[in-house]
Amino acid sequence: MMRLLYNAGIQVYRFLIWVVSCRNPKAKKWLAGRRNLFERLQKEVGSDDEKLLWFHVSSLGEFEQARPVIEGVKKYFPGYRILLTFFSPSGYELRKDYPLADYVCYLPLDTPSNAKRFLDIVKPDKVFFVKYEFWFNFLTELKRREIPTYLFSAIFRPSQFFFKPWGKWFRKAFNAYTHIFVQNKSSWDILVKFKFENVSINGDTRLDRVAQIARASADLPKVEKFCHGRQVIVAGSTWPEDESLFLEYVNNCSHNIKFVVAPHEVNEKSLERIITLLKRSYVRYSADSTAQELEKADVLIVDGYGYLVSVYRYAKIAYIGGGFTTGIHSILEPAVYGMPVVFGPDYHKFHEATEMIRLGAAHTIANYDELSLLFESYLTDPVRLEKESLCASQYVESNRGATEQIVRYFFKN
Fold this sequence. Notes:
This protein is 48% helix and 15% strand. It contains 20 helices and 14 strands.
């Protein structure tokens, strides 16, 4: 019965995507990307007899977790082809040309017929899912075909529906996983409680990825001129709720420091919102500003994509957006450079956030007064700032290495 409801729900989901696609560009891309998918797969993938590894991620964040593993596989086992699938257009559109994948496409909707047809064409030798990817029909079909299937950088919580009494039917699909690599002991505990033995604590491959990013980060001469030797606070991946608090502090701050704001959505509406809230001098990153204009400005607005990971290297403190809306964005990208990280209250689903708070390398704020008090403490107490910056660096460094362990395990089994 529950399986019938699940499959019906999948069809309802597809119908709703179709309904909103006339007004929602993301939904329109979701549909367009899956049009004639099997025909394209048959032409591009099905005609090749070489061994193939299938990696599936939901979106861009999960891709960043898969990326170091894909690179490790390519380094040590170059003979394998790589198929990379996405569920979300936001990930696919940005990484559809990823050079280490031989094929990049969308995941077909999780129906029994789609799962069978997809696997008939692709014929993967091993399959890798990342973090939260639990697709009942695909997992059931992979188990039936006895294809080695792995889940890594996974997080499990007691509140997830498949650990409730009514979720037992879905939980059986987890038997498809040859091995599950979880990020923390609480995830391990709940799986063991439900009699899963093919589990190990491995950590998060994103820590290896952010270390790679830090080593390869580009110099940004425009940002260097803007900083002009002064301390910088960066607000990254911000939403309106974050900006209202952060920019109020910017307007009221009396310290001789500079600020960078990089909104999550880079469009004229979000940029105009930031500019309207600002009462300090600013420049836009894309503007053809002189060195003098950059040095005189108090605020730099990053109005393009792809710069933020390199901008963090110039900061002393980072504020990360999303904590008042959908959940925080990556706090590891700034932490790898050694700085304390601040964010809103919606962080509990993120293991790295709870751990960094416990270690004193991160803090959560619920309102402007808390944000202001925390920033003032950092700016007036250099000993505290240095101590918490060191904690952030040590957290990243001490938790690296998950990728190598995973790659070794995969190809011993």
